[in-house]
Design a protein that fits this description.
Number of helices of chain B: 0
Structural class of chain A: mainly beta
Number of strands of chain B: 11
Helix content of chain A: under 10%
Largest sheet of chain A: 7 strands, mixed
Shape of chain B: globular
Distance between the termini of chain A: 39 Å
Oligomer: heterodimer
Radius of gyration of chain B: 13 Å
Largest sheet of chain B: 7 strands, mixed
Shape of chain A: globular
C-alpha cells in the first residue's frame, strides 16, 4: 500500500519561496512506471495540477504552464521523497497543497497541507 | 488541453442510486478519465479509472457499489445503495500531452 506523508510550513510570506516535501512509502521515487506530482486546491481555482517528476533511465519534469516560471520539483533518492519549491509567491498561491502518485491516472494522494501566503 | 465539465451538485436518498456525469470537451472524447471523491475536510481519494469503452478498474478497497460507464464524451460514475458516507465532492480527472486536468466537482448530498 502506497502512503505519501507531506511536511512543510503552513505560512509563507509574499515574495518568498514555498517549499514542501512528500515522503514515499510502499513505492520508490525512482520507479520506472510511476510519477510524483504536486496538486493544489483552492476555492477560486478548484483542483489544479502543478507538475511532476519521474525517472525513466534519467529524471524528467513536467510543469503546468501557469506556474512553469516559478516551480521546481526535485526527487531525493536517498530519502525516497520529493519536494516542491514555488518561488515569488503571492496571496493567490494560498491553497491546500497535495502530493500524489500517478501511473497513468492519479491513484494515491498525500494528506494535504494548507499553505497561507501572508505577511 | 481537455476541459472536464461536471454539474455542481446532485442529491439522492439514502439507499437509492445516483449517476454522476463528467463530460469531455470537443476533440477529447477518446480520453480515459479517473474518478475521485473527497469527504469534508479530507484529501481526495481515488475511486477508479474509466475508459472510453466503459471498462473501468477500481482502486483498492473501493466498494462494489461504485461502478463506471461511458457514452461518447460522457463518463459516468454510478453509486448504488447510497450510504451517508458517500456524501462528498466527486471529481473527474484526465490527462493529455503530459498535462493533468480536473473537473470542477459535483457536491453529492445524501438525503
Amino acid at each position: 500500500q502506497v502512503q505519501l506523508q507531506q511536511s512543510g510550513p503552513g505560512l509563507v510570506k509574499p515574495s518568498q519561496t514555498l517549499s514542501l516535501t512528500c515522503a514515499i512509502s510502499g513505492d520508490s521515487v525512482s520507479s520506472n512506471n510511476a510519477a510524483w506530482n504536486w496538486i493544489r486546491q483552492s476555492p477560486s481555482r478548484g483542483l489544479e495540477w502543478l507538475g511532476r517528476t519521474y525517472y525513466r533511465s534519467k529524471w524528467y519534469n513536467d510543469y503546468a504552464i501557469s506556474v512553469k516560471s516559478r516551480i521546481t520539483i526535485n526527487p531525493d533518492t536517498s530519502k525516497n521523497q520529493f519536494s516542491l519549491h514555488l518561488k515569488s509567491v503571492t496571496p493567490d498561491d494560498t491553497a491546500v497543497y497535495y502530493c500524489a502518485r500517478n501511473q497513468a491516472d492519479i491513484d494515491y494522494w498525500g494528506q494535504g497541507t494548507l499553505v497561507t501566503v501572508s505577511s | 488541453q481537455p476541459v472536464l465539465t461536471q454539474s455542481s451538485s446532485a442529491s439522492a436518498s439514502l439507499g437509492s442510486s445516483v449517476k454522476l456525469t463528467c463530460t469531455l470537451s470537443s476533440g477529447h472524447s477518446r480520453l480515459t478519465i479517473a474518478w475521485h471523491h473527497q469527504q469534508p475536510g479530507k484529501a481526495p481519494r481515488y475511486l477508479m479509472k474509466l475508459e472510453r469503452s466503459g471498462n473501468y478498474n477500481k482502486g483498492s478497497g473501493v466498494p462494489d457499489r461504485f461502478s463506471g460507464s461511458s457514452s461518447g464524451a460522457d463518463r459516468y460514475l454510478t453509486i448504488s445503495n447510497l450510504q451517508s458516507e458517500d456524501e462528498a465532492d466527486y471529481y473527474c480527472e484526465t490527462w493529455d500531452s503530459d498535462t493533468w486536468v480536473f473537473g470542477g466537482g459535483t457536491k453529492l448530498t445524501v438525503l
